[in-house]
TrEMBL record:
<dbReference type="InterPro" id="IPR007401">
    <property type="entry name" value="DUF454"/>
</dbReference>
<keyword id="KW-0812">Transmembrane</keyword>
<protein>
    <recommendedName>
        <fullName>Inner membrane protein YbaN</fullName>
    </recommendedName>
</protein>
<feature type="transmembrane region" description="Helical">
    <location>
        <begin position="61"/>
        <end position="78"/>
    </location>
</feature>
<feature type="transmembrane region" description="Helical">
    <location>
        <begin position="6"/>
        <end position="27"/>
    </location>
</feature>
<keyword id="KW-1133">Transmembrane helix</keyword>
<dbReference type="GO" id="GO:0005886">
    <property type="term" value="C:plasma membrane"/>
</dbReference>
<dbReference type="Pfam" id="PF04304">
    <property type="entry name" value="DUF454"/>
</dbReference>
<keyword id="KW-0472">Membrane</keyword>
<feature type="transmembrane region" description="Helical">
    <location>
        <begin position="84"/>
        <end position="103"/>
    </location>
</feature>
Length: 119
């Protein structure tokens, strides 16, 4: 999962975060050192911690995910010339995926979390 996440960081058609979320989940059972390394990463750590602690996705993450899905669909449609049923099926899959991502809450700030936990 970590290798796929690293590849996704360099290839625009491959997702990164979902593979890193899965890598953290696997490392939590197999290698606490690598789990900590991913969670402490300045680049991916905040989004991984937000997902783990709150099931949250940042607005920027939602925008990038939706834009990536739209670009992926357009690339698929342009290059594969799918039949109408296949184009509709893939479109419905992307729309459902985008709806799931958009429906996730935005991460709460550290101050808001501390205030909520103090109550």
């Amino acid at each position: 999962m970590l290798a796929l996440g690293v590849i996704g960081a360099f290839l625009p058609v491959m997702p990164t975060t979902i593979f890193l979320i899965l890598a953290v989940a696997c490392f939590s059972r197999s290698s606490p050192r690598l789990e900590k390394w991913l969670l402490d990463s300045p680049t991916y750590g905040p989004s991984l911690r937000a997902w783990r602690e709150q099931g949250a996705v940042s607005r920027k993450g939602k925008a990038y995910a939706c834009a990536g899905m739209a670009a992926g669909y357009l690339l698929f449609f342009w290059s594969a010339h799918p039949s109408l049923p296949l184009a509709i099926g893939v479109g419905v899959f992307f729309l459902a995926s985008a709806a799931y991502v958009v429906s996730r809450p935005a991460p709460k700030s550290d101050d808001a979390r501390k205030e909520t936990s103090a109550r």
